[in-house]
Structure formats: structure tokens, C-alpha cells
What does this fold into?
Amino acid sequence: MEPLLLITNCPDETVANAIALAVVEEKLAACVNLLPRVQSIYRWQGVVESASEIPLLIKTTGERYAALEARIRELHPYTVPEIIAVPISRGLPAYLNWLAEETRQ
It folds into this structure.
């Protein structure tokens, strides 16, 4: 099992909650943390933009990544949503076992 931390940002609480609920209910993620608003500054189509966003920290596994990415893309209003997966190299074994069990198909 390859545990992953997936990060994405949402434009508002409604979208963030919808994505979080869907991916946990569908066992694509074991847990999603919705963080407080952040201000993002980025370049999009040649223009520097600024947006207030809600970050999501999504705990999943490598086995569920492709389906999770596809589901986020379905639910996300951005043309190119930020979807970044970071490997979890260490963690409490009991937590990582729970993560694996909660995302098992």
C-alpha cells in the first residue's frame, strides 16, 4: 500500500464540502481536512491572478489515486484544478492501516 496526501484548492466552502463528502463516501479517500481560507497568487493564461480558496488535504492510497483524480476533476469547477499527490513515507502504523482499510474497494 502506498499512502498519499493529495492537495487541492477549491473556490468556496460549497465546492470543498461537496468534493470532501463525495470522495469519502465513495471510498476514494479515508479522510479530508478542509483548511481555513488562503489567498492564492498564480499566473493563469499569462495574467497574474489572486483568489481566495479553501485547501483540502485528502488522505488516500496510490491504488485509488486515478479514480480520485478523475472524481475531483468531475466535481471541480476549475478548468485545471490543482491536484498534487505527495507520498507519505512514514506514519503511525495503525493510522496507515486504517487509511488502507477505508479506501479498499
About this structure: The CA atoms of residues 24 and 30 lie 6 Å apart. The helical segments are 13-25, 65-75, 93-102.
